[in-house]
Design a protein that fits this description.
The chain is 43% helix and 16% strand. It has 17 helices and eleven strands. It binds iron/sulfur cluster. One of its GO terms (molecular function) is iron ion binding.
Length: 369
Amino acid sequence: MQELMDQYTSSKISRALLDEVIKLAKQFQKKFQRIPAFMEVCGSHTMALARTGVKKALQNHIRLISGPGCPVCVTDQATIDAMISLTDEENRIICTFGDMMRVPGSYGTLMQAKANGNDVRVVYSPNDAVRIAEQNQQKEVIFLGIGFETTIPILAAALKEAEEKQIHNFSIWMSTKLVEPILRHLLNNKEVALDGFLLPGHVSMVMGRKHFEFLAAEYHLPGVISGFEAVELLSSLRRLLMLALEQNALVINDYQSVVAEDGNEHAKYWMNRYFALCDEPWRGIGTIAQSGMDIREEYRHFNAKEKFSVPMRSPRKTKCRCGEVIRGLIDPPECVLFAKACTPLNPIGPCMVSSEGSCAAYYQYMREE
Ligand code: SF4
């Protein structure tokens, strides 16, 4: 009964908020003679906006552009190929998050490598991989470290456990990314005109509200940190519209139950203890200086890239336009393969595989039948 009451109350609030958001969007359109364009940075927001129906309800009023916040989607093809090639040795166990299993490499997927008899395991946390290493000391256990600031502290926790337990057959193949450098890159290149950002709740939980103040201070754009429920998304869009209407460049925390001004100092300490900034390649963009984190020199014995080499083959070219989707240049239906050759059952690119991918979100919730 309470659950039903909560749902009823929340849908009434959502309705009222939606009406207000539409009203504000119309005011914006009247004032600036165009539809406001906001980028949701985080892949979980992309999925939440589609799943809750917020994106569809607002499609004629706000241009919601999916940003580069899905970790699997932004990983470049050569890295995906290298990770799949890692499975080719008999004395290795490759551990990964489930999202990676079906990501198409140029010459197959991790799922196919597993079907071919290679030891590829899905784990819920990198610490699970440390325990697998502990139980299989005659084998090398490699964790595929893909993710943003939310994942890096978890990778640090695994290295801490491996260090404390003196586990020498565990390592991580790092391909982590940071949000600030990619946002700077997109803004500096002015590829998409934006009126503000819906900022990622989870990354902000680690990095804090202040971390995003550069958007206001240097780029004169507002940003609102949001939660993931319909009411939270609509509330944040309402605040973002109010800021954009007044050309008021502020970064607001609308997810205060979770996000603090300075983030999580403990998590940041462990990130910086094990990892240092490095240049990272991004799908469809190229290498951006200091846009990721790699294992510090003093912990290089945990760095799979130092321990193992893989044959580098040229990535196979496809018509997949994930690179443009990630940069907000096109919406998924503009890709000729969308919902035809490329579907969740037969994905051509990572944006259709990942649970945070724009193409998957469009396919599941926005597609016209
Ligand atoms: Fe790539 Fe498929 Fe998305 Fe096209 S629809 S951009 S092929 S993932």
